[in-house]
Amino acid sequence: MSAPQPGLLAPLPAASRYLTFRARPGADPRAALARLAAHPHGEALVIGIGASTVAALGGEVPGLREATPLAGPGQAVPATPAALWLWLRGDERGVLLHRGRELAALVADAFIVDEVIDGFVHRGGRDLSGYEDGTENPEGAAAIDAAIVDDPRPGLGGSSFVAVQRWIHDLDALAAMGQAERDGCIGRRLADNVELGDAPPWAHVKRAAQESFAPPAFILRRSMPWAEGADAGLLFIAFGRSFDAFEAILRRMVGAEDGIVDGLFRFTRPRSSAFLWCPPLVDGRLDLRLFDET
Ligand code: HEM
Question: What local confidence, expressed as pLDDT, does residue 293 receive?
Answer without folding.
Answer: 66
